[in-house]
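stage 2 :: seqdesign
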């Protein structure tokens, strides 16, 4: 079994310690951190997701797999993010109200920090007003909302409306993402940018902050 397959398998089994060790081993062998992320950690998480959908595994198994995912991400973080980079802009990031999924959001954060952005992470289950308050307080250029549920993605429209009501809509770029979100949905709610993955979200946020 290849190292990446082993990482994926251990992640599915929720064996955080093994995942951590193997991610470190892969890094020590000079493997590209993005390959480790995509073909090891995210591969395992997506297999767990498929099994979850088919009722082959349940919430506890998914949670321990998520814990193993974090253990691996922690080891990868320094390799994915450049340290000591001067901030090129500020992003307020959170998972919308009613939604507790944070793995994708945390990846977005990691990638954004790696691009030299300062990220104000509001966590999960974030009400629209909190996004707005934080954007005003920190003078952020971007509000970035993540949602993983079809029932919570509609909260993104409330963030857009709250920005209008607070009079900051033309000062802030609203970016949306997460598995059920699409470009059409983004347009339909009046948000500015949809990006399908963490790396392109970070690239776009950096572009916005640099006024390119
Ligand atoms: Co949840 N869950 N979950 N879950 N869960 C999904 C999302 C689901 C698709 C599973 C399924 O049925 N196949 C399904 C949603 C169905 C739907 O709405 N269409 C689902 C469900 C139903 C639920 C519950 C309702 C289950 C229940 O209790 N009956 C419940 C809801 C709780 C709540 O939020 N209120 C629930 C709970 C949970 C756990 C707590 C057990 C756990 C979350 C743990 C955690 O996050 N700390 C969990 C997990 C782990 C999943 C799956 C298996 C994996 C999600 C994940 O982390 N993927 C998921 C199935 C799946 O997605 N295949 C599932 C890896 C992550 C890196 O991907 O977050 O998509 P993702 O991020 C991607 C992109 O989307 C993008 O970048 C990342 C990749 O680079 N991205 C952005 C994300 N945010 C972005 C923002 C951007 C741009 C890009 O710009 C701002």
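stage 2 :: out
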């Amino acid at each position: 079994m290849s190292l990446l397959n082993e990482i994926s398998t251990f992640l599915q089994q929720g064996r955080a310690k093994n995942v951590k060790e193997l991610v470190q081993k892969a890094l020590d062998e000079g493997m590209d951190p993005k390959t480790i992320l995509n073909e090891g950690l995210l591969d395992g998480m997506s297999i767990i997701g498929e099994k979850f959908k088919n009722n082959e595994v349940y919430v506890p198994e998914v949670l321990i797999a998520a814990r193993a995912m974090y253990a691996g991400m922690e080891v990868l973080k320094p390799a994915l993010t450049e340290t000591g980079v001067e901030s090129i802009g500020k992003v307020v990031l959170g998972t919308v109200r009613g939604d507790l999924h944070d793995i994708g959001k945390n990846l977005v954060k990691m990638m954004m920090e790696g691009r030299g952005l300062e990220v104000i992470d509001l966590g999960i289950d974030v009400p629209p007003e909190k996004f707005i308050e934080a954007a005003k307080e920190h003078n952020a250029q971007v509000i970035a909302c993540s949602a993983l549920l079809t029932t919570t993605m509609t909260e993104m429209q409330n963030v857009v409306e709250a920005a209008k009501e607070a009079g900051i809509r033309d000062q802030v770029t609203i970016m949306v993402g997460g598995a059920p979100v699409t470009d059409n949905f983004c347009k339909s709610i009046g948000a500015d940018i949809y990006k399908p993955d963490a790396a392109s979200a970070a690239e776009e946020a950096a572009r916005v902050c640099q006024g390119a």
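stage 3 :: structure notes
- The chain has two domains: 3-83, 90-209.
- Residues 59-80 form the longest helix (22 residues).
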